[in-house]
Each structure stands twice: as structure tokens, then as C-alpha cells.
Hints:
With 74 residues, the protein is mainly α. The chain is 72% helix and 0% strand. The protein is built from three helices and no strands. The longest helix has 26 residues.
Amino acid sequence: MLDVTKLTQAEITRLRIEALIKxxxxxxxxxxxxxxxxGSGDYTKNxxxxxxxxxxxxxxxxxxxxxxxxxxxx
Length: 74
């Protein structure tokens, strides 16, 4: 059995990738790793800048407009 307490972070990362490739195939490993990609920036600040602070009435109004646009396109 491998003593992981004596491994460097790089060695653990290499073993993790090898195990994922063995279990999932290279493509499966890549798809799995994409789930854990780190983002950047301040999500809350960016969200507030993009969305503002809409009321429930604003949200329902936007939903209604979106539905109307979709129905016109059909």
C-alpha cells in the first residue's frame, strides 16, 4: 500500500489523473475534471452588476416577455 503522507502534491495529482484515466478513459477523465474547474472573479459582485436587484414583478415581467417572444417565433 502506498504511503500518501510521503508524496508531494504533484505526485498525488499525477496518481489522481492516472486513476481517473484508468477508470473513465482519457475523455471521461477530462469531462470529470471540467466539473471542478475554478472560476475567477467575484461571482456575487458580477451577478449584481449583470442582474441588478430585480423585484419579483420584474422577474415575472421578463418571463412573460420571453414567453411572448418565443410564441411569436413558432
